[in-house]
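Sat 14:20. Reprocessing the chain from the morning session after the first attempt stalled halfway. Input below, unchanged.
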Amino acid sequence: MRHYCRVLSAETDYDGEVLTGDLSGQSAPQARFLECTFQRCDLSEVKLPRARFGDTGLYAVHGAGVDLAESTWLDCVVQGARLGAVQLYGSELRRVRFEGCKIEFLNLRGATLVDCQFVDCQLVEPDLSEATLTQVSFEGTRLVSPELGRATLSKVDLSAAELIGPRGLTGLRGATISAVQLIDLAPALAVELGIHVGG
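Finished this time. Tokens:
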């Protein structure tokens, strides 16, 4: 039965819960959320490391300093989120859709993303270093200063994204980009690969 829940506990199962309001500062490591809804929650300084999310939606949530390190996500939706300093390093995301989100300093270092979508999002300085991305798309998404060093990409479509000042460009191996993006990236690629352009 659905009900509103405002207090989170470690290693607890939440099934069909609707979570709203101020959840800031709460800590619930290894909690499990199945078919839950986070609606307009303040997630500032929430600590949910190694949590598991299945068939769960986060709608219009906001906050900074969200710790979701080493968490697991399956068949989830994140829509209209406004978040900063989100720790998702070492996490595993499968069939997760981000839509209309603005996320600053998203730490996905060493994370695994499979069959994920970023639609009409703005990601400011996302860290994708050492991450593994498979079948991930970024339609209408603005990526500002993404870090791609040592990333492993397969069937990743960046052709409909706006790439601004990407770093670690050799990590783009395996990605699809547009011809216009290639022209824009050419000077930075030349520098990174040690290519000297004469004339």
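The CA atoms of residues 114 and 143 lie 19 Å apart.
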